[in-house]
C-alpha cells in the first residue's frame, strides 16, 4: 500500500516553540495526545488501519492522535498515504486509587449483570470506533462541561474493595446533584442510556473519531440524533451507576483511545 518505507521521527518536525492555537496540548504518554505537523503531500494518516483526525491551523495541517492508555513506552508507528511517521511514547506514572464500594454487584457482577454490561459496552464501542466527517476546518475550542475542582483522576490504577480494575479512563469533577452539564464543543448526540456502571450517560460525536462522554448524570436533557452547540445543557450532575458520591465523569475518546480531557483545555 505504501510506496516508501522511510521513517520520520516527529522530533525533527515539531519545533519546541510552536504554539498550537486551539489544538489540544501535546503530551506523548499513554492516555495523551500527539500533535503531528504534516507535509503538504501527506493527506491521510492511519493507526491500525483506522483514520486519524486531521486539522489545520494557520495554513499548517496536523494529525491529532490519541495515544491508548495501554500503549507501552517506546516507538509507535502511524501509517500515511506516503511516509510512515514514528512517535515516542514517554514514561508517565499515574497514581493509584483504592475505593470501597458498598454495592457488591458493582465489584463482582452476577452473570445477568455481566451480560448487560457486555451489551452496553458493545453499544458504546460502536460509537468509539466510528469516524464521521467534521463540520469544522480548524480544531474546535473546548470548555469545561461543569464547574468544580478537578480531581487528578484520569489514568489512575483503581482498586475496588481491594480488587484491581482497569485504569480510570476519564476526568472526575465533583459537583452537587442537579448542577448543569453543558456540551464542551459542538457536536451530535450519538447515544444516551442508563448503564450498569456508568449510570445515565450521554455521548457526543464532535467529528473524525473525537467523542466526548458524560456519565453518572441525574437527568438527561438531550436525545439521540440531536445537534448540540457548545454551552448548551445536555443534562444534570448525579450519582447514578457505580459511584461513591455525586460527580461528573467526563471522558474523551480520540481514534478509539481514551485520552486525558484536560489536554483539550487551555
UniProtKB/TrEMBL annotation:
<feature type="domain" description="Peptidase family M23 N-terminal">
    <location>
        <begin position="31"/>
        <end position="82"/>
    </location>
</feature>
<keyword id="KW-0732">Signal</keyword>
<dbReference type="Pfam" id="PF01551">
    <property type="entry name" value="Peptidase_M23"/>
</dbReference>
<protein>
    <submittedName>
        <fullName>M23 family metallopeptidase</fullName>
    </submittedName>
</protein>
<dbReference type="InterPro" id="IPR016047">
    <property type="entry name" value="M23ase_b-sheet_dom"/>
</dbReference>
<dbReference type="InterPro" id="IPR011055">
    <property type="entry name" value="Dup_hybrid_motif"/>
</dbReference>
<dbReference type="GO" id="GO:0004222">
    <property type="term" value="F:metalloendopeptidase activity"/>
</dbReference>
<dbReference type="InterPro" id="IPR050570">
    <property type="entry name" value="Cell_wall_metabolism_enzyme"/>
</dbReference>
<feature type="signal peptide">
    <location>
        <begin position="1"/>
        <end position="21"/>
    </location>
</feature>
<feature type="domain" description="M23ase beta-sheet core">
    <location>
        <begin position="167"/>
        <end position="261"/>
    </location>
</feature>
<dbReference type="Pfam" id="PF18421">
    <property type="entry name" value="Peptidase_M23_N"/>
</dbReference>
<dbReference type="InterPro" id="IPR040487">
    <property type="entry name" value="Peptidase_M23_N"/>
</dbReference>
Amino acid at each position: 500500500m505504501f510506496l516508501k518505507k522511510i521513517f520520520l521521527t516527529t522530533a525533527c518536525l515539531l519545533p519546541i516553540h510552536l504554539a498550537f492555537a486551539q489544538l489540544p496540548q501535546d503530551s506523548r504518554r499513554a492516555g495523551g495526545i500527539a500533535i503531528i505537523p504534516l507535509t503538504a503531500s501527506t493527506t491521510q494518516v492511519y493507526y491500525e488501519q483506522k483514520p486519524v483526525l486531521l486539522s489545520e491551523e494557520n495554513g499548517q495541517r496536523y494529525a491529532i492522535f490519541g495515544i491508548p492508555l495501554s500503549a507501552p513506552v517506546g516507538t509507535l508507528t502511524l501509517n500515511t498515504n506516503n511516509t510512515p511517521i514514528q512517535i515516542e511514547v514517554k514514561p508517565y506514572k499515574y497514581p493509584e486509587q483504592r475505593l470501597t464500594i458498598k454495592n457488591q454487584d458493582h465489584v463482582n457482577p452476577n452473570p445477568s449483570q455481566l451480560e448487560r454490561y457486555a451489551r452496553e459496552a458493545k453499544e458504546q464501542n460502536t460509537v468509539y470506533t466510528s469516524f464521521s466527517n467534521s463540520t469544522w476546518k480548524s480544531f474546535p475550542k473546548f470548555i469545561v462541561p461543569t464547574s468544580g475542582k478537578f480531581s487528578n483522576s484520569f489514568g489512575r490504577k483503581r482498586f475496588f474493595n481491594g480488587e484491581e480494575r482497569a485504569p480510570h479512563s476519564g476526568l472526575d469533577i465533583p459537583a452537587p446533584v442537579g448542577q448543569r452539564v453543558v456540551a464542551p464543543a459542538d457536536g451530535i448526540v450519538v447515544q444516551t442510556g442508563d448503564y450498569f456502571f456508568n449510570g445515565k450517560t450521554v455521548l457526543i460525536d464532535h467529528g473524525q473519531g473525537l467523542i466526548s462522554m458524560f456519565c453518572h448524570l441525574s437527568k438527561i436533557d438531550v436525545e439521540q440524533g440531536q445537534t448540540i452547540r457548545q454551552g448548551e445543557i445536555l443534562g444534570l450532575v448525579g450519582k447514578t451507576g457505580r459511584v461513591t458520591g455525586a460527580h461528573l465523569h467526563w471522558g474523551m475518546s480520540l481514534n478509539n483511545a481514551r485520552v486525558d480531557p484536560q489536554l483539550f483545555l487551555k
